[in-house]
Amino acid sequence: MMSQTHQSTAVCPACEEPLEESDRFCGACGYDLSSTPRAAAPDDHPTLTMAPAPEGSAEWPAAQEPDSSDTPAPVHLPTDLEGIESGGGAPDPRTATPEQLEAATPAAGTKLCVACRAGQVDPDGYCENCGHAQPRERDHMEQELGAVAAVSDRGLRHHRNEDAFVISSAALPDGSPAVVALVCDGVSSATRPDDASLAATRAANESLHESLPRGTHPQQALHEAILTAAEAVNALAQEPATAREHQPHQNAPACTFVGSIVTRELLVVGWVGDSRAYWVPDDRTATAARLTEDDSWAAQMVAAGLMNEAEAYADERAHAITGWLGADAYELEPHTASFKPDRPGVVVVCTDGLWNYAESAEEMARAVPADAAGRPLHAAQVLTGHALDGGGHDNVTVAVLPFPGARQGAGSA
């Protein structure tokens, strides 16, 4: 996830995880925030006090002292205690009647909490009984499609994954395949960044599967796909869910975009924002290359000659993006480029959650396994692990496409 300028100072009083304004429970530990005012990070550790016993609590029986014969005191079993209703717990299957069990059985398709196994999960992903945050489907995703694979992970610091990816293969008019990898990174200071990245990848992929089989040149097809993705993200700003949440201090849904198309002879990349694509040849004595240029404050400083790359990316403003997909973006200018590599290799398409830990082309080449062309999923897993081992401060998404991609059979996915 990228941020622009807005950062929340509210933190969870239990684990000090940063919170968002709309959070009902802490995404890291499930703490119920409804009864606790939001507060900034404390300067020291809070004092813990013993909470009074809740009304109706069962009293634990006093242990008996051993008598003069040194006979051990009797042990009280859990079944000796009268139970206290939790206000939502499931009946004990050992003592409940069939009617009670049937009444407590949730309707088909109801999702139960992974922690208490009793409460139902609300639409926001929290247990209605214990408040525990549930694992989200997008916390960790992996997909392999022949000669292309991708992995996306929530990372170690964020409570949700706002990245998205699509990998697929389309048939060109001559029957040869065009392998596609699209990666989007939701702008975390915007409303619904996870929805924005998902909408963009899906819309762009659909556009490519319409244009490539018609014979549209892959570079032009990717340019059109980015425009289609932008329209899909713009449309989110008009939806009621966004309208209710959209406050004056928030931005409309937004994300960055990077994609690559590989054919038998051509390598095409397209992007908006600071997600990147790298070229890593199989022969590591050959030169690796970064194929994209960031739409960011740091890149502008370097391009203007005001700072060198090391100085620019060390600045706290480095990752402020100057281009993105979204209703409040400046004039959209998709970037596209075509290459004809003279040797086999792999294209690494990723968000800054990875390249923050392998920024230069040389660093990325060292992180990519030597057998990446033959094992793209393994390579994507290794690169994700590289980012997590480095700190995992952001969502991590990476796709690996071998070039040439002739081994991949045509067909959508």
Strand content: 15-25%
Please identify the structural class as seen in this structure. Answer: alpha+beta
Distance between the termini: 26 Å
SSE order, one letter for each helix or strand = EEHEEEEHHHEEEEHHEEEHHHE
Helix content: 10-25%
**Order of adjacent strands in the largest pleated sheet:** 3-4-14-13-9-10
Q: Low-confidence parts, pLDDT < 50 over ≥5 residues?
A: 1-8, 38-61, 81-88, 405-413
Radius of gyration: 26 Å
| Shape, principal axes of CA atoms | globular
Tally of strands? 14
Largest sheet entry: 6 strands, antiparallel
What structural keywords apply?
413 residues, six-stranded antiparallel beta sheet, 22% helix, globular, disordered N terminus, disordered C terminus
Task: Characterise the protein shown here.
With 413 residues, the chain is an alpha+beta fold. It has helices at residues 98-104, 193-211, 218-236, 240-245, 297-303, 309-314, 352-355, 361-367, 376-389, and strands at residues 10-11, 39-40, 140-145, 148-153, 163-171, 177-186, 254-262, 267-272, 276-281, 289-290, 325-326, 335-339, 345-350, 396-403. The strands form three sheets. Strands 3-4-14-13-9-10 form a six-stranded antiparallel beta sheet. Strands 5, 6, 7, 8, 11 and 12 form a six-stranded antiparallel beta sheet that branches. It has a two-stranded antiparallel sheet with strand order 1-2. A hairpin with a 7-residue loop joins strand 9 and strand 10 (289-290). Helix 2 (193-211) runs antiparallel to helix 3. The model is unreliable at 1-8, 38-61, 81-88 and 405-413 (pLDDT under 50).
